[in-house]
Amino acid sequence: MRDIYQIIKRPLITEKANILKDEENKVSFVVHREANKVEIKEAVERLFKVKVLKVNVSTMKGKPRTIGRSVGRRPDWKKAVVTIRSGDRIDFFEGT
Known about the structure:
Elements (H helix, E strand, L loop, with lengths): L3 H4 E4 L3 H10 L1 E6 L5 H12 L3 E9 L3 E4 L2 E4 L3 E8 L12
Antiparallel strand pairs: 1-2, 2-6, 3-6, 4-5
């Protein structure tokens, strides 16, 4: 099993993720590409001390990028949408 700090890379802060967080109590994270649902669930529960009900994951393809004449791609990444118990909260920007 990987370290919990290697599994959860960072929270995904987008407009859609904020709407899901407010309305459906779902939080989005960028996670390690080889992490599975069980590892993600345990990592979120230990890091944020919340009860995870459900984990949905999807692999996102990297976008093509051009710099001058050279064409490349951004790396592929994995997104996890975690549903937490209704009484629990995860605040990324505390004190605002």
